[in-house]
Design a protein that fits this description.
This protein is an alpha+beta fold and about 280 residues long. The chain has 6 helices and 19 strands. It has a single domain, classed as M1 Pyruvate Kinase, Domain 3 (Beta Barrel). One of its GO terms (molecular function) is catalytic activity.
Length: about 280
């Protein structure tokens, strides 16, 4: 990685877990990730679990909603909905839209869990009521009290997106299918992030990240994201061409991008250089 070939291409924040988010012109990054990222989530009162599009039969409609921040909180918009996190009726409006009793919350319940669809089962059989699910705890490598699945930041490179597109040319890879926080312009071919776990990266003048693992991909990239249609190839190309071991104890998984933790906070912008720390 060189300064001339690696720079921040885009920054993304997702104020409500599993909803569409917003692109940023600058971001403050702390130990809890980009300020305001996954600040809120939906708590399913029937199951006690956090709503996640990783359980698509129940929650894929979340990806029709967009969450953006303003001076007073988070605005949520989508087909048939325009509400705000400060509205006393926000949870009722979301419950009516989603057909389940949910509460918009900023505080994860104790030992918060979410359901995940098995990605290989989805590729074999599609989305059915019988698609196997696993239950995972939130925040395995994330700061306590957050809604991150594993870590506070997710990075992906333009090189990886270009490679996915080359392997699946009928539907060019869109970064938002993979829900990164930071898209890095690193067009080196292949999957550049494979060599990053265990390394520290400096972004801009101050931010230092520690890359901790490759990102195993689930069903989410295959789902419709707003105006992006469903595309099983977004996962299949990784299952067929890029299975690696992201963590000890796991077998080879379809991966794209990496998870990172924050070593030193900082403010970053598109165009900032990305280099070894």
């Amino acid at each position: 990685m060189t300064e001339a070939r690696a720079a921040v291409a885009a920054l993304h924040r997702y104020p409500v877990k599993s909803m569409l988010g917003e692109q940023l012109t600058a971001a403050d990054v702390t130990a809890r990730g980009i300020t305001g990222d996954r600040a809120l989530a939906l708590h399913d009162t029937a199951t006690g679990r956090i709503a996640s599009a990783k359980h698509p039969r129940r929650w894929q409609r979340l990806l029709t909603l967009t969450a953006t921040t303003d001076d007073t909180g988070v605005r949520i918009t989508g087909p048939g909905l325009d509400t705000h996190s400060t509205d006393p009726a926000v949870s009722k409006a979301l419950s009516e839209l989603l057909g389940r009793d949910v509460t918009l919350t900023a505080t994860p319940p104790a030992q918060a869990r979410l359901d995940r669809a098995d990605p290989d089962a989805v590729l074999r059989h599609g989305l059915t009521d019988d698609t196997p699910l696993t239950v995972s705890e939130l925040g395995t490598g994330a700061p306590p009290g957050t809604f991150f699945d594993f870590a506070p930041l997710h990075l992906i490179t333009t090189g990886t997106l270009d490679t996915i597109t080359a392997l699946h040319p009928h539907q060019p890879a869109a970064a938002r299918r993979y829900r990164p926080n930071i898209v890095i312009d690193a067009r080196t071919g292949g999957f550049p992030e494979d060599e990053w776990p265990g390394r520290d990266l400096r972004i801009g003048a101050d931010l230092v990240l520690r890359v901790i693992a490759a990102t195993p991909r689930c069903v989410i990239p295959t789902l419709a994201h707003g105006d992006l249609p469903r595309d099983t190839g977004a996962l299949r190309v990784l299952a067929d061409h890029h299975r690696i071991v992201p963590l000890p104890g796991l077998g080879p998984q379809p991966c794209a991008g990496v998870y990172a933790q924050v070593v030193q906070p900082g403010r970053i912008r598109p165009g900032d250089t990305v280099r070894p720390a």
